[in-house]
Amino acid sequence: MTGLVLLAPGLPDSLLTPLRASGLSLQTLDGAPALEQAEAASAYVVFGGSPASAALIDSLPNLKIIAVHGVGYDGVDVEHACSRGVVVTNTPDVLTEDVADLALALTLNTLRALPMVEHHLRSGRWAAGERAPLTRRASARRYGVLGLGRIGAAIARRLEPLGGSIAYHSRRPVAGAPYAYYDSARSLAEAVDVLIIATPGGPTTDRLVDAEVLAALGPDGVLINIARGGVVDEGALIAALTENRLFGAGLDVFAHEPRVPQALLDHPRCVLTPHVGSATVETRAAMAGLVVENLLAVLSGQPAITPVV
């Protein structure tokens, strides 16, 4: 097993520690690769969503694998990688349950406006005799899941005990799914109270949730996004919230991370988290282990453990 493993900048210690223990030769790629790096590189490790363009792939003539630390790989030009014989891997399944847990937490927190009512208490307004504003119930609501893949299905299972209805939209109906299917994001939004986004990112879903979809969701509606920030037209979302055409939003992802628009930060019925869907000790350890397993397999001439195609 030979070759240099290039690392995207900013990878977490939970990944770097097992990578260093693997015995692989590692270097961080900061900008365009130097000639020596480019010739030596046999692997590139990136975050989910990090760019790995056709130009970068072509600049690494001996590249064998792009290992994505995450389930989403929308930043990688997979088609071009495949045309070059480069394997692309990700870390599916191991993060499904934690991301679905966060989606449920955001849903409950947004409907019950927990950050807003907690601030009411902490600011002394309750002690001063002021009642907290009323919020919305979570039980017996109409829930919609946009994207019924692994994570979307796990979210739907968590919603079942709440006793409401569950519907979904995916590119095509999912065989055996026990939920009502709608043939567009707009028709799904029109039929539900809470729309939870669990689609992949990338060009095919860019701004899928636009002003029209948000209008269909309506002034009592809630939007939850644990997928990719680009799936939502962020400007349209801000307008809907500030003009009271949407009740609230629970967001773990944003269009231009880590920058979050001030209008979202200031809105009392927005629950915001910093892209932490998979950020538990257990899941990050499992993700890192799968990245290392994929690298060791492919660089040893074996099939990848979790290729994306």
Walkthrough of the structure:
- With 309 residues, the chain is an alpha/beta fold.
- The chain has two domains: 4-92 and 281-299, 3-Layer(aba) Sandwich (Rossmann fold); 96-272, 3-Layer(aba) Sandwich (Rossmann fold).
- Helices cover 35% and strands 16% of the residues.
- The strands form two sheets. The chain has a seven-stranded parallel sheet with strand order 8-7-6-9-10-11-12, with helices on both faces. Strands 2-1-3-4-5 form a five-stranded parallel sheet.
- Helix 8 packs parallel to helix 9 (211-217).
- The longest helix has 19 residues, at 281-299.
- It is elongated and about 65 Å long.
- This is 2-hydroxyacid dehydrogenase.
- It holds the Pfam family 2-Hacid_dh_C.
- Residues 34-308 form the D-isomer specific 2-hydroxyacid dehydrogenase catalytic domain.
- It comes from Brevundimonas pondensis.
- Keywords: NAD, Oxidoreductase.
Task: Please give a handful of descriptors for the protein shown.
NAD; D-isomer_DH_NAD-bd; Rossmann fold; 2 domains; 309 residues; 2-hydroxyacid dehydrogenase; five-stranded parallel β-sheet; seven-stranded parallel β-sheet; alpha/beta; D-isomer_2-hydroxyacid_DH
